[in-house]
Structures are given as C-alpha cells and as structure tokens.
Amino acid sequence: NAGVTQTPKFRILKIGQSMTLQCAQDMNHNYMYWYRQDPGMGLKLIYYSVGAGITDKGEVPNGYNVSRSTTEDFPLRLELAAPSQTSVYFCASGPTGLAGGQETQYFGPGTRLLVL
Amino acid sequence: EDQVTQSPEALRLQEGESSSLNCSYTVSGLRGLFWYRQDPGKGPEFLFTLYSAGEEKEKERLKATLTKKESFLHITAPKPEDSATYLCALEIAGSARQLTFGSGTQLTVLP
Known about the structure:
The complex is a heterodimer of chains A (about 120) and B (about 110). Chain A is built from no helices and 11 strands. Chain A is mainly β. In chain A, a hairpin with a 2-residue loop joins strand 5 and strand 6. Chain B has about 110 residues and is mostly beta strands. Chain B is built from no helices and 11 strands. Chain B has strands spanning about 5, 10-15, 20-25, 30-40, 45-50, 55-60, 60-65, 70-75, 85-90, 100, 105-110.
C-alpha cells in the first residue's frame, strides 16, 4: 500500500494564480482531511470529507475549495492565491470506526506552497 | 472553546537524559488524545491513542499517559534518533473524527 500520496511536493505561485493540490489514499478510508501547518505551529483543519460526495468546512476554510467524487481522491483547490496561503499542506485519511485502539489518521508527506 | 497547549516549546536533552513532554487541554468532551511524531519535511507519524484517564501506552523508549486535564509523553534514556517534533492532538466527541492539534514540542537529543 502506498498509503496517502500528495502531489506536487513543492510549488511556487504568483499572487492571484490558482492551483489544485492532489491527494489520494489506497486504504479504503471514508474520512479524509486537509490541514495546513505554518512554521512553528500545529496543524489547522481546512476541510474534511466523511465520504464521496460529502464535504464540510474546518477551522480555516477561506480561500479554499474541495471536492470528493471518489473514496480515493480528495483534491484541494486554491483560488486567487494570496501570500497568507504560504504554508505546508497535509492531507490525511482515517477509518470510520474503532479498530482495536489503533485507529488514527494517516498523513501524506505534504505539499510546500510558496505564494509570491 | 476547545484548546490544546503543549509545553515546553523546545527541549534539548543529552543522550540518556530522561524527561517528559506535556499536553494540557480543555475540551467539552474528549473522545481520544493522539500523539504524533513529525520529522522535518515529513508528515506526522502516529505514535499513540489514549481514550480514558489512567490509560498508559508504551512503545520502545516512549510512554504516554492521560489524566482528565493533561497527557504526558515520557521519554526514557533518549537517543539522537528520537529528535523530532512531538504533536499532541484531540478528537472531540461528536465531531467527524476531526483532530485539534497543539503547536508541538521540538525535541533535540544530543549525542
């Protein structure tokens, strides 16, 4: 299993440009999440999905959009990039129910985004 | 408001010098407390989940404990390879398995 994969690894955007961060998981997890992590800070939830066709806002959704057409994929769209969106973005997935105490979210390697 | 606070922000230890990291929290209803390890340039890696006060879990040199207000990550006889940022996260009861993260403790173990 590849786990959670993210592309690209690094991207530089100009102010006002748009892009899509890709995320895929092969663990058949229903739940998927997007977080951003600023330097020296913990992760903040942007959007999440509890299954295909169902998405909802997290703590910091402004400036982002998501879609979930399949169980495997959960892309994050940035429209009109701003310097405040410079961050590291992590995608994660997780199972729905209890699994013997080992339930958790599994994280991808991250996408580093710089908006200039 | 649900809050998670980790201390210290940074910790430098000599190899073999045991210590503890703290995660204190105020939440309306806790479903689980998670500890993750994060290496530079990588995503968080799962270490432990704790569900109820009094619970303890161990893995190699790490031991996590939970009370009603805080969790400790005890590191016994650390090695340089234990150097990383350790993140604490809460899952709030009734949420869609969302995690609320602390800002982390950056641990450096010197040889």
